[in-house]
Design a protein that fits this description.
Layout lengths: L2 H15 L3 H5 L3 H12 L6 H15 L6 H6 L2 H13 L5 H11 L4 H8 L5 E3 H9 L14 H7 L2 H7 L5 E4 L4 E4 L2 E7 H10 L8 H13 L8 H11 L4 E2 L6 E7 L32 E4 L2 H9 L6 E9 L5 E3 L1 H4 L4 H7 L11 H15 L4 E7 L2 E6 L5 E10 L2
Parallel strand pairs: 9-10
Antiparallel strand pairs: 1-2, 2-3, 3-4, 5-9, 6-8, 7-11, 8-12, 10-11
Helix pairs in contact: 3-6, 6-7, 7-8, 9-11, 11-12, 12-17, 12-18, 13-18, 14-18
Length: about 400
C-alpha cells in the first residue's frame, strides 16, 4: 500500500478514534501520568485503557477499510500507547515533541510527518532510538532516508534504549557514523555504538560520550590507554569488583568446530590456542588467547555453532583441578549481556589488522587480568551458563566426543 493510501487510511482511523475522544478527555493529569508510568514500565494497562481498546475494536469492526485485517490482528491503541511510553522516556527533540502531541490527539498522520522531518543527513540519536524501539513503526510504511533502515536494523535495542535520552549524540546518515555534537570528529560506527552502550552495564559512572572519546583515543594510542582519564576510571571500576566465585560445577565443556573428513582433535588441540597465532578478537589482542567453556554440552555446541559453517563439533569434557577467581555476571544481569556477547565472538576477518570495535572489550579484559580476576561467568541461555578464563590450566581433560550439528 502506498504512502498516500496509508495516509488516508490512518486519517480514517483518526476519525474513528474521535468517536470516543470524550473518554480520553475525562483523564485528569494524575490518571494520565500514572498511565504513562505504567506503559514505560511495561506493566499491564489499566482497566480504563482496556475499555477504550475494546470500544475501538468494535468501531474498527464496523469500518470498511483495507486496514480491517490489520486492526483485527494488531490493536492500534496498544501501539499508540507503546509509542507514547517510549517517548515518555526519551529526550524531547523537536520531532519527538511534535509526534507526542500528534499521538495524544489520535492523529496518526503525525507518524508520517515525523518520518518526513528526518529527510536530512544529520539526525539526533533519540529520533533514531524511537524508530528502533516503538513497535508502531514496524506496522506502517514510512519513507526514510537512504541507508537509514540498514542502520536501524544494525542498532541493537540495548543501544537504542540508551541513545533515547542522549542529548548530545547525532547520526551522520551518509557516513553511517554516530558523533558527538560538541566534538564532531569524535565518531563511532553502529557496531562500535552497540559495544559502547552495552558496556555501560558494567562500567557504571561513565556515559556514551566518555567511551566514544576513549575508543578513538585507543585507536590512536593503544599502548597509552591508562594515560586517558576514562581508561584510568575503567581500571578503577574493575579493580573495585570484589565479589568473586569459584567453579560451581563438577564438569565443564569446550567445543571446537571439526571439518568433514578430518581426524578428531587431540587433547592438546582442544586446549587453548597457542600464543602468537590468534587473530584480533573481541576479547583478545593479536596473539592473545583465552579459553571459552560452558557448564553443559549443549551450551558448548550452541556457542560454537553460531560462528561456524562446519558440520561437526568435537566436545571436550573438563574437570576443574584447582580454584579460580571469577566474577559472576549471570545472576546480576538476569538477561544475556550483549557486551560479553561481543567479547565472545571471534574475528571474522582472516588477517592481523586491528579491529576498532574490538579495542574496548580487549582493554576491559586486560583490566580484569590486571585486577587479579581470572575469569567471567556470564549468561548463555535458560539451560546453560558460559565462562571465559585467560588460560586452560584449571582443568584435567576427561575425554571428548564428536557430534553432528548440520
Amino acid at each position: 500500500m502506498g504512502k498516500s493510501n496509508l495516509f488516508d487510511h490512518y486519517e480514517g482511523i483518526s476519525r474513528v478514534l474521535s468517536e470516543y475522544s470524550s473518554i480520553l478527555d475525562r483523564f485528569n493529569n494524575e490518571n494520565y501520568n500514572r498511565l504513562l508510568e505504567s506503559v514505560s514500565r511495561n506493566l499491564s494497562l489499566n482497566d480504563t485503557l482496556e475499555e477504550i481498546s475494546l470500544r475501538q475494536k468494535a468501531l474498527f469492526d464496523r469500518l470498511d477499510s483495507p486496514l480491517l485485517k490489520y486492526a483485527d490482528t494488531m490493536d492500534i491503541v496498544s501501539l499508540q500507547w507503546d509509542a507514547l511510553g517510549k517517548i515518555a522516556n526519551a529526550f524531547k527533540t523537536p520531532e519527538i515533541d511534535k509526534l507526542q502531541k500528534s499521538l495524544m490527539q489520535n492523529k496518526f498522520a503525525g507518524l508520517f510527518e515525523f518520518a518526513d522531518a528526518l529527510q536530512t543527513s544529520y539526525i539526533e540519536a533519540p529520533n533514531i532510538a524511537l524508530l528502533k524501539t516503538a513497535k508502531i513503526f514496524e506496522h506502517i510504511d514510512v519513507e526514510l532516508p537512504k541507508g537509514l533502515p540498514t542502520i536501524i536494523n544494525s542498532l541493537n535495542v540495548d543501544a537504542a534504549n540508551r541513545l533515547a535520552y542522549s542529548e548530545n549524540i547525532s547520526l551522520d546518515v551518509p557516513s553511517r557514523m554516530f558523533y558527538l555534537e560538541e566534538s564532531p570528529n569524535e565518531r563511532v560506527n553502529v557496531q562500535e555504538t552497540n559495544i559502547i552502550c552495552s558496556s555501560l552495564h558494567l562500567l557504571s559512572g561513565l556515559d556514551e560520550a566518555d567511551l566514544i572519546v576513549f575508543l578513538n583515543y585507543l585507536d590512536q594510542h593503544p599502548n597509552l590507554a591508562l594515560n586517558n582519564p576514562t581508561g584510568r576510571r575503567i581500571l578503577e571500576i574493575i579493580s573495585e569488583w570484589n565479589e568473586m566465585i569459584d567453579f560451581d560445577q563438577p564438569y565443564y565443556y569446550h567445543a571446537r568446530a571439526l571439518p568433514e573428513n578430518t581426524c578428531p582433535y587431540t587433547e592438546a588441540q582442544l586446549r587453548r590456542a597457542p600464543a602468537g597465532i590468534t587473530w584480533h578478537g573481541r576479547f583478545n589482542f593479536v596473539g592473545q588467547s583465552h579459553y571459552y567453556f560452558s557448564d553443559a554440552p549443549k551450551g558448548a555446541i550452541m556457542e560454537v555453532s553460531k560462528h561456524t559453517k562446519e558440520p561437526r563439533v568435537q566436545i571436550a569434557t573438563l574437570r576443574p583441578t584447582r580454584s579460580i577467581r571469577m566474577i559472576d555476571l549471570s545472576q546480576e544481569l538476569k538477561t544475556k549481556n550483549k557486551f560479553l556477547d561481543y567479547c565472545r565472538f571471534g574475528a571474522t576477518n582472516t588477517n592481523l589488522h586491528i579491529q576498532r570495535e574490538y579495542l574496548l572489550p580487549c582493554f576491559v579484559a586486560d583490566c580484569c587480568r590486571e585486577s587479579g580476576i581470572e575469569g567471567i561467568k556470564y549468561y548463555g541461555s535458560r539451560e546453560y551458563n558460559n565462562y571465559v578464563s585467560w588460560d586452560d590450566s584449571y582443568f584435567a581433560f576427561e575425554g571428548s566426543e564428536i557430534q553432528q550439528i548440520r
